[in-house]
Amino acid sequence: MFRHWFDARWPKPRDHHGEFDRHAGNYRVINTFATVGVASAIVRQADENRHALTFTNSSANNIWLSKGAVAVIGSGVFLAPNGSVTAKIDAYGYFYRGPWAAIATGAASNMGIVDE
């Protein structure tokens, strides 16, 4: 008997992606925050297991992010007030997993961080 590809009697393939996501140990999300001031400070340490990183500026001040130990106002990744930026794996498969530093134009600037 001929069977069409849409025939319901054929077994469905396993949903490995959904199965992977259901196990809490396979996927971790770290939600945290940092208070950034007018002096450069490390806001995320290096992490070899990191896959994505999102910074959200919830203050009224400008924030600059830097890959490395020192951030400088006017240099690096600019984060506008109430703005966000996401660092992910690029088209070449590269992703920076080192430390991130931040500096703000005003004291006590709050920044939310989601580390995946």
Properties at a glance:
6% helix; 1 helix; four-stranded antiparallel beta sheet; 116 residues; single chain; mainly beta
Question: Roughly how many Å apart are the termini?
Answer: 49 Å
Element string (H = helix, E = strand): HEEEEEEEE
What is the C-alpha radius of gyration, as a whole number of Å? 20 Å
Using the coordinates shown, work out and report the CATH topology: Jelly Rolls
> Would you tell me the overall average pLDDT?
83
| SSE class | mainly beta
Helix content: under 10%
CATH class equals Mainly Beta
**Which quaternary structure do these chains form?**
single chain
- Report the sheet with the most strands, covering strand number, pairing sense and barrel closure: 4 strands, antiparallel
The percentage of residues in β strands lies in 25-35%
Reading side by side through the largest sheet, how are the strands ordered?
Answer: 1-8-3-6
- The counted number of beta strands is 8
Overview of this structure, please?
- By secondary structure, the protein is mainly β.
- It has one domain: Jelly Rolls, CATH 2.60.120.770.
- It has 1 helix and 8 strands.
- Strands 1-8-3-6 form a 4-stranded antiparallel sheet, with no helix packed on it. A 4-stranded antiparallel sheet has the order 2-7-4-5, with no helix packed on it.
- The model has no long low-confidence stretch (mean pLDDT 83).
